[in-house]
Design goal:
CATH superfamily of the largest domain: Fumarase/aspartase (Central domain)
Bound molecules: arginine
Structural class: mainly alpha
Strand content: under 5%
Number of domains: 3
CATH topology of the largest domain: Fumarase C, Chain A, domain 2
CATH class of the largest domain: Mainly Alpha
Low-confidence stretches: none
Radius of gyration: 31 Å
Strand order of the largest sheet: 1-2
Shape: elongated
Number of strands: 6
Number of helices: 20
CATH architecture of the largest domain: Up-down Bundle
Length: 485
């Protein structure tokens, strides 16, 4: 008879089970073909648990050392692709534990003292997600830097600012990019908060009720870096909650969904701007594809896919919310379903952030010591489109208000002027002074400064407005923030 109970699936948990599991049920209940991805976190958690078991006198020094050596060997086997994952052993936890016992005998069987897979898996997912979230924070910073580098070069480029997708008022192209920078900086903050809450220790909750062993949970938390900014351990304070809630995964996916929504809005604009009707920008060829039938085509596939993948990530958020909604306390196997959506969210988000940084700012080329690719801005096209849209109509109204007209009357008067210039097929600034005076006699020659796109943009000096001096101040603030980060 085998000395390792995990060698035999029917006995993986106890001798109670006499019937072998059907292959279909085995496949249905197994998670190892996806949760093997947690192996580093699983081993990290086990190493900390074993060290603590030794320090409180539950494990002998020899057992602890054997466990440590065995786990490090297993990590190496998995790293190098030599490890044999067994579906019959259900999940990453049982696979690793079985191999440990195979390697070191009885000491391996002692590792699970005072622990359940319920607090083990909750710990693993938190550890894994914490580290992934840190990477995502860094990728969000890189994307902000990419936007900033393009913004810096285009403060004086005039873009038709839109509402309802109709030309509204002239804005600086840099100002427009900085709007996305604000969104991504809030995303970064959200990710930091999510990371902090995720970084809390469930281990020690055991199956659901805690354990009678004198575990030192604070020590485990410290060993795993699950501490707050003051270095104090962060520990789940209720064992039932610790093993069962996955709100940290939902929060993360929610924050990820918002990042993707912001990316999707930007994508939509890039796609529009790249179309022939706008022709405001060009994307580097390597982010576009051609058509198999229409030789003239260059399609913005990367932003289109990002827009599509947003639906996928938001779908994962919905999936996780539904996964949680009817679960009674404490652990239920439903929770095994948290992993695939979470893994896919992380992968999709990381790839999208990487590709967007490069698509926007280009890639640093050592040879030429310059950036290659990146967003190509067609400033003249943007300006012409702004001129066509009567974007300074509000400025004319404001001018009349300064001359003493009530705003509503000024609004009406300018509507007449716009109607007239539309009929003539010219911009407001192309009307003669006499013509303008026919709408209101208080108009004088200084009106032409007000009617110019630059005049309009330069005048919007409120904090957060589009005047270049404001935009430069914002660029300065972001630069400081992102260099410190
Ligand atoms: N693979 C399981 C999961 O992902 C591990 C926990 C299993 N616990 C249990 N009591 N069956 O949730």
């Amino acid at each position: 008879m085998s000395t390792n109970p995990l060698d035999n699936k029917a006995q993986a948990w106890s001798a109670l089970f006499t019937e072998p599991m059907s292959e279909l049920v085995q496949r249905y209940t197994s998670s190892v073909f996806f949760d093997h991805r947690l192996y580093k976190a699983d081993i990290q958690g086990s190493l900390a648990h074993a060290q603590m078991l030794y320090s409180v006198g539950i494990l002998s020094q020899a057992d602890w050392q054997a466990i440590e050596k065995g786990l490090l060997q297993i990590r190496q086997e998995i790293d190098s692709g030599q490890f044999e994952w067994k579906l019959a052993l259900e999940d990453v936890h049982l696979n690793i534990e079985a191999r440990l016992t195979q390697l070191i005998g009885d000491a391996g069987k002692r590792l699970h003292t005072g622990r359940s897979r319920n607090d083990q898996v909750a710990t693993d997912v938190r550890l894994w997600l914490r580290d992934e979230t840190q990477e995502i924070i860094e990728l969000l910073q890189a994307l902000q830097r990419a936007l900033l580098s393009v913004a810096e070069q285009h403060v004086d480029v005039i873009l038709p600012g839109m509402t309802h997708l109709q030309v509204a008022q002239p804005v600086s192209f840099a100002h427009h990019l900085l709007a996305y920078l604000e969104m991504f900086s809030r995303d970064e903050q959200r990710m930091r908060e999510v990371k902090q809450r995720t970084n809390t220790l469930p281990l020690g909750a055991a199956a659901l009720a805690g354990t009678s062993y004198p575990l030192d949970r604070a020590q485990v938390a410290k060993l795993l870096g699950m501490v707050n900014e003051q270095g104090e351990p962060q520990i789940c304070q209720n064992s039932l909650d610790a093993v069962s809630d996955r709100d940290f995964a939902i929060e993360f996916t929610s924050a990820a969904s918002l990042v993707m929504i912001h990316i999707s809005r930007l994508s939509e604009e890039l796609i529009l701007w790249m179309s022939q009707n706008f022709a405001f920008i060009e994307l580097a060829d390597r982010f576009t594809t051609g058509s198999s039938i229409m030789p003239q085509k260059k399609n913005p596939d990367v932003p289109e896919l990002a827009r599509g993948k947003t639906g996928r990530v938001v779908g994962h958020l919905m999936g996780l919310l539904m996964l949680m909604k009817s679960q009674p306390l404490a652990y239920n196997k439903d929770n095994q379903e948290d992993k695939e959506p979470l893994f896919d969210t992380v992968d999709t988000l990381k790839d999208t952030l990487r590709i967007f940084s490069e698509m926007i700012a280009g890639e640093w080329d050592e040879k030429t010591q310059s950036r290659l690719g990146g967003l190509k801005v067609k400033a003249e096209r943007m300006k012409q489109a702004t001129l066509k849209g009567y974007a300074t109509a509000t400025d004319l109204a404001d001018y009349l208000v300064k001359k003493g007209l009530p705003f509503r009357d000024a609004h009406e008067c300018v509507a007449h002027a716009v109607k007239e210039s539309m009929a003539m097929g010219v911009d407001l600034s192309a009307l003669s002074l006499e013509k303008l005076q026919s709408f209101n006699s208080s108009i004088e020659s200084d009106v032409f400064e007000v009617l110019s796109l630059e005049g309009s943009m330069n005048a919007r000096t409120t904090l957060g407005g589009t005047a270049p001096e404001q935009v430069r101040a914002q660029i300065h603030r972001h630069t400081k923030r992102l260099t410190l980060a």
